[in-house]
Amino acid sequence: MLTLYYARPSVYARLVWLALLEKQLPFELIPVDLSGKQLEPEFLAVNPFGHIPVLVDGDFRVIESLAILDYLEARYPAISLLPTEAVALAKVRMVQMVAFNELLPAVFKLLMHDPASDQVSAEVEYAQLRARTSLAFFETLLADADYFAGEQLTLAEIVAGTIVHKMPDLGVPLTRYPQLSRWSERLLVRPSWQQIELSAEEWSNFRRRMRVMPKIWQRRRQQRMTALTRH
């Protein structure tokens, strides 16, 4: 059976979890405490970089979300989440890469911003711009289709669909992107999305945690340096 090391708040882990559900594969979830447990020897033996998610399939281990998604597609193709037609495939890959390289960095910066603060830094303004640019790109690419690849739910939905619906909570409303908003609403009613979705309390706790994340990252870097020097 497949085993997924994950943490519920992690968007990187939730999208792999979502893919496993959509592909209807049997799997076991192993939660990882991200308060520092991921840098202890037990988990470093699973992933020496101390990151989640990690997928274990028999005696083979895969790290990094996009690599895991590609592995699942190649290894378990019965329910496909990746089109083969050239234009559709290019659209899916563009959505994946824009979500990872543009939208997610913007989301993390917005999560670290205290919404109660009256001051908006240049970094936050730039994050808002990156987010709006990503959403506008998605809106144009989606057009009037049900999914980015047309009628087929794909890895584009798996990756971007775990992020887009949270944008209004981060000060970036979806009112300018009506097609994308309807697309997101359709995804949220799917049983798989409902299973992985954070509760209001989990989301609130995650947002509070992200605001103190710079200090946590500094502590984790020191923990990792200590862990690496032991090997």
TrEMBL record:
GO terms for molecular function: glutathione transferase activity; maleylacetoacetate isomerase activity. GO terms for biological process: glutathione metabolic process; L-phenylalanine catabolic process. InterPro entries: Glutathione-S-Trfase_C-like, Glutathione-S-Trfase_C_sf, Glutathione_S-Trfase, Glutathione_S-Trfase_N, GST_C, Thioredoxin-like_sf. Residues 1-80 form the GST N-terminal domain. It comes from the Bacteria. Residues 85-212 form the GST C-terminal domain. This is Glutathione S-transferase family protein. It comes from Shackletoniella antarctica.
